[in-house]
Amino acid sequence: MELLIEFYDKDVLKNIVAPLALRPKKIIYFYDSGMQDMLVFASLKKCLERNIPGIQLEHYPINILSVDKIFRQITRVVDRHGIEECALDLTGGSELMLLAGYKAGTKLNIPLLHTDLVNKCITNLADDSLVAKTGALTLEDFVDAKGACFMGESHRPPSQERFAAIQEMARFLFQRLFQWKFTCSFIQTVVARTLPHELFMESKWNIHMKNGKAVYPDREILEKFQELGFMQDLYIKEGKQVQFSFSTIEDRQYCISFGVWLELYVYIAAAQSGEFNDVKLGTMIDWNAYDNITVAGNEIDVILMDESLPVFISCKLREADTAALNELLIAKKRLGGWFSKGIIVTYSKEKKIHIGTYKRAQELGLELLDATDIMAEDFDQRLVRAIREHDLISLKWKKI
Question: Coiled coil: which residue ranges (predicted)?
Fold first, then answer.
């Protein structure tokens, strides 16, 4: 295809899916003349050039309140290019833009296309015939097209060899959250006295945190850490002294983070299911890659791609609250737009007792998994079902 005409839309998927599937030589975006941020087109070009080397991109402002002016602008641009192999995608943009586009396509005899983002196909509106199936997208496609960039991960993803040990340790801790809370505080206090690269730790059994509160570790948890390889050379003189070494720097980070075990548990379940692509752990994103200021937005616990749709997962090793739901909702809308999914995994009994947070999650169009799901033997399949059965079409009519 020589030329594809698009109406720019705030939802990034509507701007990139058809171009990436049809791979034209040139794309023209018509956009609302009230827009001021032209960096959005630099972002789109970055995404498209990585997938279609040498692609040309142009953009023209239009008055979105006048069907006649939009129609005349489209006609002038098409006539000026004099390209016969041309198509107009009526997926993004405002209602009047779509009306004007239909009028222009009919008069100029240009194929009118529509991209079904949920069913992953592009059809010709004249006869509903299939033009193309949409291709698989990556998280990098979304981030580039949104003008953002990855800033790394708060925790390095574990190797597959560590998956079984992490899962067993996580379940062990989930069943002893009260003891884990005090043990984690103890380890954090001990580690704070050492250099970042040190692995050997030595401390009195009873110590005080900065706030003056006394803490001491749980012996069973320390022994389990050693049994599964997160610690070694453990020596305990209960009530008096404890010594141990972390096996690696990553293990040190895991052992001083109370909630990371649920993030790891969910990450491993998603990765091992074999159903998803681009599974990322503890991702930090700079939402504006072009302002010369490196600032990380909210960390997203787990991100993955489900058949070209982004899924954002928030993990809470406690009861989820309204703030947690809102944070997840904002993150998913900001990066993925309407065509994205949000899952919150919380170690509580939200679903069983149907408390307010569970009902609020349903109202916001978020899926929720609780402690019953987490501790189930088939948690990975429950996670897959929660994502796959998350019906975006039904969300269209929810009051979100």
Answer: none
Q: Are residues 127 and 68 in the same domain?
A: yes
At residue 208, the pLDDT reads 87
CATH number at 64 reads 3.40.50.10770
Question: Domain range for residue 27?
Answer: 3-135
In this structure, are 240 and 270 located in the same domain? Answer: no
Examine the domain organization and report whether 335 and 380 are in the same domain. Answer: yes
Task: Kindly state whether residues 184 and 95 are assigned to the same domain.
Answer: no
Calpha distance 357→374 (Å, rounded)? 17
Q: Same domain, yes or no, for 223 and 349?
A: no
- Same-domain pairing of 276 and 319: yes
Does residue 331 sit in the same domain as residue 383? Answer: yes
DSSP state of 159: P
Stated pTM of the model: 0.83
How many structural domains is the chain composed of?
3
Q: Which residue has the tokens 């079409």?
A: 393
Same domain, 8 and 128: yes
Tens digits of pLDDT across the chain (400 residues): 889 999 999 888 899 999 999 999 999 999 999 998 888 999 999 999 999 999 999 999 999 999 999 999 999 988 888 767 889 999 999 999 999 999 999 998 899 999 998 888 999 999 999 999 998 888 888 888 888 788 777 788 899 999 999 999 999 999 999 999 999 999 999 999 999 999 999 999 999 888 888 899 999 999 999 999 999 999 999 889 999 999 999 999 999 999 999 999 999 999 999 888 889 998 887 777 676 665 555 678 999 988 778 899 999 998 888 888 888 888 777 766 667 889 999 998 877 666 678 888 888 888 899 999 999 999 999 999 999 887 665 555 454 4
Give start and end residues of each alpha helix (H) in 228-348. Answer: 249-255, 260-273, 322-336
Q: Is 242 helix (H, G, I), strand (E, B) or coil?
A: strand
Tell me, yes or no, whether 28 lies in a domain.
yes
Task: Judge whether 354 lies within some domain.
Answer: yes
Residue 142, domain member (yes or no): no
In a domain, residue 305? The reply is yes
Distance CA 128, CA 111 (A): 12
Long-range contact pairs involving 173-179 (C-beta distance under 8 Å, separation at least 24): 173/221, 173/261, 174/261, 174/262, 174/317, 174/347, 174/371, 174/374, 174/375, 175/375, 176/218, 176/220, 176/221, 177/317, 177/347, 179/218, 179/220, 179/221
17 CB burial (10 A radius; 0-12, 13-18, 19+): buried
